[in-house]
Amino acid sequence: MNFKAQDKQNQLIENITVHHLVVGVDIAQEAHVARAVSFRGIALGHPLEFGSHLEGFKQLGRWIQDLLKSYKLNKVIVGMEPTGHYWFSLARWLIDQGIEAVLVNPHLVKKNKENRDNTPSKSDHKDALVIADMIKNGYYSPVRFQPEAYEELRILMANRETITKRLNAAVNQIHRWVDIVFPELRQVFKILTCAGAIATLRLFPLPSEARRLTREQVISGWKQFMKRHAGVKRADLLIALAKCSVGTTHALHAYKLHLQHLLEEYDLAQRQLEKIKDELQLILKRIPYAQKLLEIQGVSATSLAGILGEAGDLSGYAHGNALLRHAGLNIAEASSGKWKGKMVLSKRGRPRLRHFLYLMTMCMVMTNPEIQALHHYNVKEKKLKKMKSIMKLCGKVARMLVGLAKSNEAYDSTRVFPQVA
Question: Which is the CATH superfamily of the domain at 5-142?
């Protein structure tokens, strides 16, 4: 099936009729501003400022009803920018009232702000009018709140990203601590987050403590945290290096307390990530086609949860190319006359969705035989650069995910990639 973005754009434009009242809302934290135009873009009525609470929403509803009555219109569409999380409550209230709610791209609002008055001025009242103009021209997308399972995935994956940043920050601080206090520990353990290194930092992190221990005491301490200890040679090496350490000998009590807090942060982040991993597994079991997608070699629960959390129900997409546009992985061209510009990715979409599509594709390139063969063919036969091949395979993976979700069939390499079979 051919997918054309222009067809979707035409449908959005045709949706706005002569009977429509088009309302643009500039979203803020506490107070919003609404402006209304006709289907031709003629400003109607006066601007409305209303609060982000139930009484404010009811005020907006009465304002809309007055305009519909005054201008003899019978349909209404309300659009807004997805500004942070401040638009959630208003959008849900509008949908509950049976009012069509849509979103406009903040980047396009910025680009179109000079259309009305040919000035770069910016205000809440002007932004609301610009948003209304964009809606009547078809530059909007419907608000679709996903089923609970997909919303849970989005929340958990966003939380996972925050926890991962905290974990990385704690690990970096641990590396800094070791470089200052006990730099020789890197000669004992190449990876400072391995079980042996973490056990050492918990039990005897200071060289002055390690140098007083015997081999048996070091091994006995390691056994408290590991089923298999790091070995006799490493225990001897640890003691020997502690005796000739060049680490600092000042403010050791403060350094030890700092390390204790870093290890607590490290442990907390690890437990939270494990809890999120278990929750993701349970949620994916509630999505009908998710288990069949997980059977594909190279598709992990984390990457699939990230894609479903950002993209929502894949079976609702008309084509895999629509998923690519949602992620901003569609091709953008700049050319004029004889001049042919460079083809680039538009990156007008969800960055987290791009991230997980890329990760899934890279994992499949490394582990999935069919994707490996396609990548090898692109690089060796078509002479594509490796990154161009990866981006092309991202499109292949997106179309595969949407196709399998819509058909709810199991993965079949001979059907999905017949040229490689």
Answer: ATPase, nucleotide binding domain (3.30.420.40)
